[in-house]
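[User] I have long wanted to understand how a fold can be written as tokens. Those tokens are not coordinates but codes from a learned vocabulary of shapes. Could you go through the record with me and say what the backbone is doing? Thank you; the sequence and its tokens follow:
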Amino acid sequence: MKCTGKCTVYISQKGAVGVALGAGSADVSAGSTTIKGFKASKSGDYFAAAGILVGSKKTVKISGSNFTLIGIAQTELKISGLTNANNSVSDPDYSLDDPIQKGLNKYGFSSGDFSTDWSVFPMARGTTLEDPTLDLCSASTEVVRYRSNAAADQALSEVKTSYNNCVKNNGGTERDGAFTKYEFLPIPNVPAPLVAESKRVVVHAKIGEGDSVRYLFGVYQYNGDMFTGLYIVRPGSAPFTPAELSRWIDVAGVM
């Protein structure tokens, strides 16, 4: 499929997926995973592929300008005969070797903070601004520690403005110019562990339509010059239950 101009392709896939381009470059995403600017590459008769672990059925989005889509490879691996085992070695987070990040290390989580049935990994490009995670109804960026309390207050104001505009417009415009529908859902009473109401934004929303529907629960908290964000995103036809929301609010309180 040859794209002339700006194009977006949506394909429903599951398992492990590889997207192969014959020319140009494109952004590839599924769920909360995104590969930015994947470029076409060929060696002999073989094309390089942008690999994404989709898991259960999700919509794979391919968007860009003037690229050629060769195809999508889908692989599903099943392993049987497993026995229970504990994680013996924690994977180091090398992104925190950056001198700027070392000062923030004490605020983060590591594998040692969780029971052995959890695996904790650093977010790809999470110490840069190349792959922002604070994405409330539009393209935006996330900063963990601001230069001053005033800068943090300005960021909080921008998040509140983005949220209010999203509620007013029932959605927002993505980076590729496409409008995405948002439906905001009820939020339970927020207990004391979170920061004051004036210093936070709590979001529970249904995003998208059809096969691309997913649910977001986000807690954006500002304390002095520090920001913490908890984002839970999952596909499916049902929103988070009140019990699940209460549990994640407790987690946000710990953060």
Observations:
- The radius of gyration is 20 Å.
- Residues 51 and 235 are 19 Å apart (CA to CA).
- The longest helix spans residues 149-169.
